[in-house]
Amino acid sequence: MAKKNGSTQGKGDVDISPDMLKEMYKDMLFYRRFEETVHRAYTKGKFAGFCHLHIGQEAVCVGVQKAIRKSDYMISGYRSHTQAIAKGIPAEKVMAELFGKSGGAVMGKGGSMHMFSNELRFLGGHGIVGGQVPLAAGAGFAIKYRKEDDVCICYLGDAASNQGQFFEALNMAATWKLPVIFVIENNRYGMGTDIHRTTSVDHLWKRALAFDMEHSQIDGMNVLSVYSHFRSLVADMRKTQRPHLCEIMTYRYRGHSVSDPGNYRTKEEVAEYQEKDPILQLAAHLKANKIAKDSDLEAWDEEAKSKAKAAEDWADQSPDADLSLTFEHNLAN
Amino acid sequence: MARLMPMPKLSDTMEEGAIAKWLKKVGDKISEGDPLAEIETDKATMEYEATESGFILKFVVDAGGKAKVGGPIAVLGDKKDETFDLNALMAAAPTPAGGHKAPAKPAASAPAAASAPAAAQASAPAVAPASFGGRVKASPLAKKMAKDRGVDLSRVSGSGPNGRVIMKDVTNAPAGGGGGGFFASGSQPDQVIRVTMMRQTIAKRLLAGKNDAPHFYLTRSFDMTRVNSWREQLNAGWDPKSGAAKVSVNDIIMFICAQALKKHPMVNASWQGETITQYGSVHLAMAVALPEGLVTPVIRNCDRLMPKQIAAQTKDMASKAKAGKLTNEEFSGGTFTISNLGMMGIEEFTAIINPPQAAILAVGATIPTPVVDASGAVVVKPMMKVTMSCDHRVVDGMVGAQFLQTLATYMEEPLAIFVG
Amino acid sequence: MAVIQFREALNQAMLEEMQRDPTVFLMGEEVAQYDGAYKVSKGLLAKFGPERVIDSPISEGGFAGLGVGAAMCGLRPIIEMMTWNFGIQGFDQIINHAAKMLYMSAGQFPIPMVFRGPNGAAHMLGAQHSQFMEPMLTNVPGLKVIAPATPYDGKGLLKSAIRDNNPVIFMEREIMYAEKGEVPEEEYLIPIGVGDIKREGTDITIIAWSRMVGYCLQAADILASEGINAEVLDPRTLQPLDEDLIFASVRKTHRALVVEESWPFASVGSEICDRIQRHCFDDLDSPVHRISGAHSSMPYNEKMEEMVLPSVEKIVRAAKEACYAI
Question: What average pLDDT does the structure give for chain C?
Fold first, then answer.
């Protein structure tokens, strides 16, 4: 079975149009400003409970999203605000959901970890680490059952790949050839534990070897690498329906969640990754290729900030959740 | 414009924070994103970055100080030397931990509200059972039926465990007697009560006993002082938890009676038509009242038992009788009967002889009574009356009187029994 | 009317529903080529092919979750647990995912699927193969739980379960798969949440499900010879419970006995007892009685196993106590 291995740095970006490059930049920037706004809102006490931010990992969700189509399925764990927005759930509805408002993506009944959209085929938002992986296999199963050529993107964290259900799902996907791309966003830490302290392999793509599954490892701080890699993965999968495990090396600047000061890593380490910031990388690329000037970048940043603020304002205005729905949706009719 | 900077919420469970260290000084200019302070939360010490730009005018909370989430920790201004009125700012500030705050726990009653409609008012019926005799144990259904029928629960004998009144007890109870009120509302219809086999048998026997035996009656009073103090001695050190029977006055009376009967065998006898049988043993029957009728279980060889042994047996017999668990054997072979209504305050009464026995002793209440003692003074003594009914075919007046004489001796000085 | 085995009745249910609705598929260990560990799925692979009748790896968590994911994407899975003892491996997916998906998504993702398999004790199978899981699963909001006692009930309820748009836990008994009963030739459905009076009576209501229904009917015959006329009520569905049927019966007979095989603490029986005492208090002539399996792991030895489980004799004795006839 053919195996893909190694990272792709900026390969294939020749056929990414300047317009798409600008879109990617603006999307990543908006997601960054959105998550920062979310964090500020949390510290101001506007909402409570859990909150896991995607800051630093924007290139992953933008690169993947640009490579798929609307009918493809997507499922994720709990670090999924930006993925939900990328899939098409309006940012203000995500913010309103965080605030527990009736205008929220799931009417205030889910919160940060449970964004859903049946129409957009965003299958959640899940709180059990690794629990979403068999669900993704199920989506792949349904695609194949109906003889369609969609794919399912399954995001999971590095530490989630130690959960038993992960192995069970990959085994079934490989045995039955289910069209699922298992995307391990390796930001190196499960909560506060360096992944290497709890994992016997040095690279997580090696997990695929246990199933003779195709696999790859790429740099997740470069959106163009992510995009071009996934564009070809998805194209292949629509034809062969063979599942794939892709380990994306990325980094989160903030703690595991808002309660986590991140003392398990050094400031130097964080600073080192910040130099690889995906937004700065793309900015450099845009300037180098004369697609954008500093003044454009500043203007787009202002736009991103005001879009994020607009989402927050909309969420503020949304009425509180409809309490008459508290006991609804336990059983379907 | 000067404004207050609040203590940020840095963890999902944080309610209060302490400033471990300020990283800026009063008068410093800060930009959004500048590290401002190290704040200690419930979980960890975290670096807090400024969320807005401005000049630090004042620290409201110094290093080492605490504030609730949302409470002011510093004053920010747009200009370095801006003046401000701290009191006015504080007065205008919203109270910390107000506003948008998720409730700590969901209302525990909410699920209960959504479940089955409020439990029916299934608490105690509006009318408590009449309390003549204290609390009545009854099944909920029995209580409801009693209320509906105007039956006084305290007058219904319960056949369930621990005397619980159950449905069939109420169904079989005579109506009337009124519940919860002195006067029964309206008049009651006549109740036709089925006669049980047991009652039929008792009726036949007593009728035969009364008719066949020519009854005559002897009455005598006893000073129960010695018996009472003997009883106290016997019960000193009685432990209710041991399950042992407490000796009652009636147990002692039975002991004394049995001893007296040994000395007067003609009273412990039976008319057999051609012959009279003088029984060789004393098997004392004791009358026990049950709702179904009077039963007389027998304490066999009572003349060979001491009071504590008699007490154990009478306790056992009484509870078996109440539970309907007496065997035929336990009913039969009695040679003499004692019936005691003293606990009901009856001073004296005449009982019907239990055939084929020749006599029955009816015991009344012990009543403090003024009597004249040997010196002619009036003193108060605990006096008890007994009335013996005798079958004149077997027992003559003198024989009966002599028996009662012995009984009196023994009652008023129990030691006499042991002297012989 | 045909007289068929329980396993055949369940087989017919699945076959008819798979014929009727092409989105229904069956997945589990040994369900396809082996015809099912207990032959419940016999012939289905031959009829519907390997795309719709799928042998899974031994990965209860994995394939339970795969079923949930497929249900989210428009299919109607039947997931077989070889026994519910192994089903425990799948509890994360059943409880954290299937049961909650509709709620978390505020109604966007119903999960129309059935988790089915044999529950509870059979004969001398030991501690890990004799467990009753209905107390744990009836406790979870978002699940329906069914435990049929006869082939007739089994077929009608399995068809309804497959058509229901919620995750349904369907609890069979391996020790009853060979029992026979009458099943109509024409199609029929039994609604979920509706109980059944298996024997009418006047003196006491005995409530039981699954295997205990048969035991209670035997006990009722013995009680009848002693002058006690027992009503045997089979709820059939445990969640939601047909409490109206139960209350009407107890209000008529004034005495209730619940008979179950599971461990007693926080069991289905304890829930039924609570509801009866709350709603029928004034109509009760004696406390609500209950017989459960003992609070013990299951021993292997046959006599020991009998000590742990209810028996006809224990049921008769408890019924007499409830009627003050002991």
Answer: 97
Here the tokens at position C158 are 């399995």
pLDDT, tens digit (0-9, with 9 covering 90-100), for A214-240: 999 999 999 999 999 999 999 999 999
Q: Decide: helix, strand or coil at residue C137.
A: helix
Residue B159 near residue B292, CB atoms below 8 Å: no
Nearest chain A CA: its distance from B59 CA (Å): 19
All residues of chain B having their beta carbon less than 8 Å from the beta carbon of residue A43 are 8-10, 48, 51
Task: Report the alpha-carbon distance of residue B351 to residue B340 in Å, rounded.
Answer: 10
d(CA C284, CA C252): 10
pTM, two decimals, is 0.68
Mean pLDDT of chain A: 92
Tell which CATH architecture fits domain C196-322.
3-Layer(aba) Sandwich (3.40)
Across the interface, whether the CB atoms of B9 and A42 are under 8 A apart is answered yes
Q: Which distant-in-sequence residues (6+ apart) come within 8 Å of C203 by Cβ? A: C228, C229, C230, C231, C253, C255, C323
CB-CB contact of C206 with C165 (8 Å):
no
CATH code for the part of the protein at A13-42+49-315: 3.40.50.970
Which residue segments constitute the domains of chain B, with CATH numbers given?
A: 3-92 (2.40.50.100), 127-184 (4.10.320.10), 197-236+243-419 (3.30.559.10)
Q: Residue A24 to residues A248, A279, A285, A299: CA-CA distances in angstroms?
A: 18, 9, 12, 15
Domain ranges of chain C: 2-183, 196-322
- CB-CB: which of B43, B48, B51 is closest to A259? B43
**Average pLDDT, integer, range C249-257:** 97
Nearest to C67 by CA among C59, C57, C58, C76: C76
Q: Is the CB of residue B156 less than 8 Å from the CB of residue B170?
A: yes
- Single out the residue of B197, B313, B300 nearest to residue B248, CA to CA: B313
Tokens 């020991």 found at? C304
Which residues of C form the catalytic set? Answer: 60, 129
User: What is the per-residue pLDDT for B175?
Assistant: 65
Rounded Cα–Cα distance for residues A178 and A141 (Å): 6
Each residue's pLDDT tens digit, A262-278? 777 788 887 777 778 99
Q: CB A299: neighbour CB atoms within 10 A?
A: 12
Chain A touched by B194 (CB under 8 Å): no
DSSP code of A122?
B
What was the ipTM of the complex prediction?
A: 0.90
Q: Which fold has domain C2-183?
A: Rossmann fold (3.40.50)
User: Angle formed by the axes of helices A294-317 and A278-288, to 10°?
Assistant: 140
Yes or no, beta carbons of A45 and B69 under 8 Å apart = yes
